[in-house]
Condensin complex subunit 3
Amino acid sequence: MPTAIEESDHGHHRNLTQKVARVLDDIRSSNATHIRKLKDLSVLRDSSPVQFFEAFSNALIPLFNFQRRTASAERIVKFVSLFAFTPDAKNSSSSDGFLENFLRFLLLAAEAANKTARYRACQIISEIIMRLPDDAEVSSELWDEVIECMKSRVGDKFPVVRSFAIRALLRFANESENRDIIDLFLQALPLEQNADVRKTIVLSLPPSNETLSTIIDSTLDVSESVRKAAFCVIASKFPLQTLSIKIRTTILQRGLADRSKAVAKECLKLMKDEWLLQCCNRDPIELLKFLDVETYESVGESVMATLLKEGWVSLKDGQTIRQFLASTSDATEGDCNHGIQLMEAEVALYWRMVCKHLQMEASAKGSDAAMTTGAEAAVYAAEASDHNDLLDSVLPAAVSEYVELVNAHIAAGQNYRFASRQLLLLGTMLDFSDASNRKVASGFVQELLHRPLDHEMDDSGIEVVIGDGINLGGERDWAAAVAELAKKVHAAAGEFERVVLGVVEELARPCRERTADCKQWLHCLAVTALLLENINSLGLMRGVAMDPNEILHSLLLAGAKHGHLDVQRAAIRCLGLFGLLERKPSEVLVRQLRCSFVKGPSAVTIMASKALLDLGIWHGLHEVDKAMNCNLSSQLRDHRMAWTPVDLSNGSQDLDIELLDLLYAGLERQDWGPSAEVDENESIQAILGEGLAKILLLSEKFRGVQASTYHLLLAKLIILYFCSESTELQRLKQCLSVFFEHYPSLSVNHKKCISKAFMPVMRSLWPGINGNATGSTIMVSNMRKRAVQASRFMLQMMKVPLYAKETAPDESDGESLDNQADPSLDFESGEEGLAIRIAVEVASFHAKKTAAGKSYLSAVCRILVLLQFRASEQEAIKLVRQLLNRVSESVAAEKDLLKELRQMAERLKLIDGHPDQKLSSDQANQILGRLELEVNLEEDDTMEVPATPAVQSTRPGRARRRVRVEEESSSADELTPTSVVPTNPAVMSTRSQRASKTAALTKMTAKQTVKIDENDENDDDDSGSEVTSEDDSDAFD
């Protein structure tokens, strides 16, 4: 019996719990009562310091069982967190003791088995830590316990628990002694699957060089909220001056082009509020100086376009381009040239983008005025007039002044090359309708076209051309700017071609007379390339200074045979451009390109390969071959798989094979010599691989005789994609990744091509078969893994659905897709065809007894069992059923694989309309003939796959012992029937350890096998349901 004192204490405790519960209930409805209720709760704590904590904990327990994140529950959490560290003015030791006791109580809840308890505990701990004042007195030992507990909760099963645990550690992550917390965040971020948790981690990372790279990577996160958080963190924690130029441009490039408007808006806020206003004092030119626009011009253009669109750029009074034309007496030496002040790169880009924006706005408003009437049209017309007036006030007053400004920058040298190009692009906005202005501009264009390539002297006294050597001015952008200005000045029909051809004829005169040096050749070919790139037909060149045929023979072909490497490259490039403009490629042009591809150095071969690929894609492979006017052979087409490598070092072999064979041989060749003149990211293999991928992608347009060879090209690209050496060809791998993503979905024929390429890829990648190289155990293991990865990759491509235009049924036909004679249902393009190919490969494989052969067959059979069959393909199903028996014999040593094959056979039997009826030999041969396969099918081949055989002893024993074993293991024989696979006589004298162990275990556990399996299955089901249970998980997501 309890005493009166105990009953009194129990009653007091119950009353105190009820009072605390009433306080918690009162604060659920509004935050306005929190301050008053904090005082009430403090009074209760002062009245009974000893019993208050227990009463408070009991009153709070229902919150730890409440899963939903409602507003009332969040108010309770906020209130409890505030009360936990609210000091008691009268008794500070009482409040400090309560905080420590409450934290220990929460630590116990954070380790509870109940997910809701862990969630609420981590939530309250994070709130307390985030709001706790710096002068709060908590023991270091307790903080260590809190940190360790929250670190363990970062790996919790439920995302909401992980999120609040990370939030709780945020305050400690900023301290230098807690380096392990930052490491934990950096390790967890790339592995985290939940977007909200990734966002919390990104927001929790402190500013440092190590965390910056991780935050920058998060700007490419798949989740919009994570990307937005990354830009928010960059804006708040990383000043502009602390970031490198590369990182600044990367941030703006990704953010301004982001597909999400919310993310782009966050990047705009970063650029405007943090960078433009605070760091650059509202000056866009200062912001451009932080971005190195000479290297990252596209980023500078994007920034200026955004600033102008948002209205954040305002022209000050007197701020025009004309201010650079005025004479400045105080200009420093080098900054003034004949009274002209030179522009910096950022200033030149700024003015070009401003003028372009004004011109576009004026054009848009003028179009709007033309499309409307009345007062609205008048408003639009007035706005267009204002923009045109402002543009006129910004641009130079006369064309002569513009020409003088550009010439001053060109004369200043390479340091002002970027500014000069910006001014050339600015010239396209001038008005050349006046005859005098057009005459001045035409003379300026002539000067630009006649201007020789810049050069310098090396240490040996040899002149070296500055730039790429194939474009006017040494760079593609400069040539494009000159071409745009020339087309604007000479806008009349045929005038541009006539003017440029006149320059070409003048520059080609010493080349035709064989008196030109290397620089003159390069200059002439650069102007020729500029012309060929900016016209649509060779007919526009007829009847002027030089006939197209004359340009081809006297200039381009002669340049291709020149002794200088750069001249050859430039001439081959012009030949490729010339061939694209021809109605049909000419014989001499194609022969020269093929000859340069085979015999030229690597720099020339790269240019020739680009030209041949462009011609093949533009005119068609067959047309390019017809241009040779001779019978060309094709090993790819004639011999199918019996490919004999073409020796490209032998010049006599290049002219009698088709273009596709020639390009394939170049892809196979490994001894292309290095060249220092070409881009380090370019290689012949990468260019050929990218070009052949384009041909395969457009193969529906090239349905000629080459179509039968496309699977070999695809196989080679897959091998190149997965081979270890291709890690150096990052650009090619990126290109192929995009290619493989779209290729299988474009056409039914592409599916057939993938199916035909499967076995060649596996034979080429698997070590130890077909003469493939091997190596150490680790090397062989890696090679096998790579081959398995490629096989699963091709299987995935086979399963990718076709795009809608390929699979959409005819609207006029009301039948279902299964009943239509749609080509997509052909077994050749489906998984059935691939299954037949794999089954025939396994059944006819010869090296079955070698270790490499066994592993190879096992790998392809594991792909076979993953294939799905359609009930409409009855003949293919029956053929595979007939072949599965032979397949099972080839992999009989692997019981698990044999079991999967038997299950596959059972699935096929269920969808077989007539499971007991076999295919006739004619039907089977017809299917095999369509797949271009050969296999001998016998009449007595069974359509049933034997059950998984019991492993039999291969060691001969005495008859008495064999009989006794058979009698004792009769029950085991019922479960595992005798194997139908013939015993290998070569190993009859040995008994494997696996066979001995299996036989012994079979005798010991034969009568218990079924029972144990049932228990295991039940256990697995229970454990699986417990582990994967996601009940009420929506409340946390």
